[in-house]
């Protein structure tokens, strides 16, 4: 099998996806489909919070537990679960029918 390198096209384009800058830039003007099992390497992620936009939510810090009894450990775990839910990293609890 022979691999032929073709120069990147500069100027006008007749397709939505093309290479530019001597092949350093791939312009996606159409749809980019990432198949199951594929990986995207080197993509910078801007963290979001409840009050800001970004690519992925960053959960508020939960300090390591220093619990010495079960009740305190339950409180620490519940605090972590609440932070995960507030950040959108975990579904909210289902409504309880009263």
UniProtKB/TrEMBL annotation:
Its main location: virion. One of its GO terms (cellular component) is virion component. GO terms for biological process: symbiont entry into host cell; virion attachment to host cell. Pfam families: Phage_head_fibr. It is found in: Virion. InterPro entries: Phage_B103_Gp8. Keywords: Host-virus interaction, Viral attachment to host cell, Virion, Virus entry into host cell. The keyword Chloroplast does not apply. This is Head fiber protein.
């Amino acid at each position: 099998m022979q691999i032929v390198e073709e120069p990147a096209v500069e100027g006008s384009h007749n397709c939505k996806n093309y290479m530019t800058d001597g092949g350093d830039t791939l312009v996606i003007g159409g749809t980019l489909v990432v198949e199951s099992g594929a990986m995207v390497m080197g993509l910078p992620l801007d963290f979001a919070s409840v009050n800001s936009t970004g690519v992925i939510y960053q959960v508020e810090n939960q300090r390591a537990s220093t619990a010495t009894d079960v009740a305190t450990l339950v409180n620490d775990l519940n605090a972590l679960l609440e932070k995960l839910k507030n950040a959108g990293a975990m579904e909210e609890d289902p409504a309880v029918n009263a």
